[in-house]
From TrEMBL:
<comment type="function">
    <text>Associates with the EF-Tu.GDP complex and induces the exchange of GDP to GTP. It remains bound to the aminoacyl-tRNA.EF-Tu.GTP complex up to the GTP hydrolysis stage on the ribosome.</text>
</comment>
<dbReference type="GO" id="GO:0003746">
    <property type="term" value="F:translation elongation factor activity"/>
</dbReference>
<feature type="domain" description="Translation elongation factor EFTs/EF1B dimerisation">
    <location>
        <begin position="72"/>
        <end position="291"/>
    </location>
</feature>
<dbReference type="InterPro" id="IPR014039">
    <property type="entry name" value="Transl_elong_EFTs/EF1B_dimer"/>
</dbReference>
<dbReference type="InterPro" id="IPR001816">
    <property type="entry name" value="Transl_elong_EFTs/EF1B"/>
</dbReference>
<dbReference type="InterPro" id="IPR036402">
    <property type="entry name" value="EF-Ts_dimer_sf"/>
</dbReference>
<dbReference type="InterPro" id="IPR018101">
    <property type="entry name" value="Transl_elong_Ts_CS"/>
</dbReference>
<feature type="region of interest" description="Involved in Mg(2+) ion dislocation from EF-Tu">
    <location>
        <begin position="81"/>
        <end position="84"/>
    </location>
</feature>
<dbReference type="GO" id="GO:0005737">
    <property type="term" value="C:cytoplasm"/>
</dbReference>
<keyword id="KW-0963">Cytoplasm</keyword>
<comment type="similarity">
    <text>Belongs to the EF-Ts family.</text>
</comment>
<keyword id="KW-0648">Protein biosynthesis</keyword>
<protein>
    <recommendedName>
        <fullName>Elongation factor Ts</fullName>
    </recommendedName>
</protein>
<dbReference type="InterPro" id="IPR009060">
    <property type="entry name" value="UBA-like_sf"/>
</dbReference>
<keyword id="KW-0251">Elongation factor</keyword>
<dbReference type="Pfam" id="PF00889">
    <property type="entry name" value="EF_TS"/>
</dbReference>
Length: 310
């Protein structure tokens, strides 16, 4: 397969590896991007998906939580420019989308778009989106939503950076008071800052762990210094590196950002003692605007000239 410069650039953007290493990885894997990423990781030339979640599209994330904290939603709505993302009309529209998502029974984004728009039942959600595009003058997209409900505890939300990151945290507890709510807000801020993938280690899929062990083993064995080490030592090295990776990925094992002398799990235990009831995190949702989307890069002067017909 012919390896193009664009392919090399894409792999370099994803992994941070050098151009020659990226070209070699693509050549060795027949141009398969995913396999090329693994090829580089196995040789210690790339961090795991270093830039795969890069922020690319404009827009905002917003949340809607019921007064009793039992029902909540989170949505991401994209637009073309940061200017529109900061527009009050756009923000009001996204808030209305979040309110609609809190009432929906839709299982996916297509079903959601086909629903009647709560504020004007003569239109569907998709038709209202089209109307907003006409008013604002930019292409817009309701990219995703999620709805959470709880019976035992409450849901809290946190918005960071004016809508760049949004968090929902489902807290399981019988202590629904100010102390518990403050703890939940602190945990939501932790999730925004540290981007965990799972609540606890038991939530990590076994196939993911097996896959990571293979990657780590390949990294270790590619180091000549480890070639003569016995198998049991190699296994301990694999477990050590895996445990370190999982501590960063699992919320309760992360160091608590407000007090690095304890983990998030230990922080929750201390608050549980204060309020006299267990406080546990059942699940969380974290949306970051534009993650995984590629921003269109254009010459601004050329774009202005194009619009003016020059």
């Amino acid at each position: 397969m012919n390896i193009t410069a664009n392919m090399v650039k894409e792999l370099r953007d994803m992994t941070g590896a050098g151009m020659m290493e990226c070209k070699k990885a693509l050549t060795e894997t027949g141009g398969d991007m995913d396999k090329a990423v693994e090829y580089l990781r196995e040789r210690g030339l790339a961090a795991a998906e270093k830039k795969a979640g890069r922020i690319a599209a404009e827009g905002i994330v917003d949340t809607n939580v019921s007064e009793d904290g039992k029902v909540a939603s989170i949505v991401e709505v994209n637009c073309e420019t940061d200017f529109v993302a900061k527009n009050e009309k756009f923000k009001e529209y996204v808030a209305a989308v979040a309110a609609q998502a809190a009432k929906t029974n839709a299982a996916n984004i297509d079903d959601f778009l086909a629903e009647k728009w709560e504020l004007d039942p003569t239109k569907t959600v998709k038709e209202q989106l089209a109307s907003m595009i006409a008013v604002i003058g930019e292409n817009m997209n309701i990219r995703r939503f999620e709805k959470l409900t709880t019976d035992n505890g409450f849901i809290t939300s946190y918005i960071h950076g004016g809508g760049r990151i949004g968090i929902l945290v489902d807290v399981e507890t019988t202590a629904v008071n100010d102390e518990a709510k403050e703890a939940a807000k602190n945990v939501a801020m932790q999730i925004a800052a540290m981007n965990p993938k799972y609540v606890k280690r038991e939530d990590v899929p076994e196939d993911f762990i097996a896959h990571e062990k293979n990657i780590i083993k390949a990294q270790i064995m590619n180091d000549p210094a480890n070639s003569k080490k016995p198998e049991n030592i190699i296994e301990k090295m694999i477990e050590g590196r895996l445990n370190k990776e999982l501590k960063e990925m699992c919320l309760v094992d992360q160091l608590y950002v407000k007090d690095s002398d304890m983990t998030v799990g230990q922080y929750l235990e201390s608050v549980s003692k204060q309020v006299g009831a267990p406080i546990t995190i059942k699940r969380f949702v974290r949306f970051e605007t534009g993650e995984g989307l590629e921003k269109k890069s254009e010459d601004f002067a050329a774009e202005v000239a194009k619009q003016m017909g020059m």
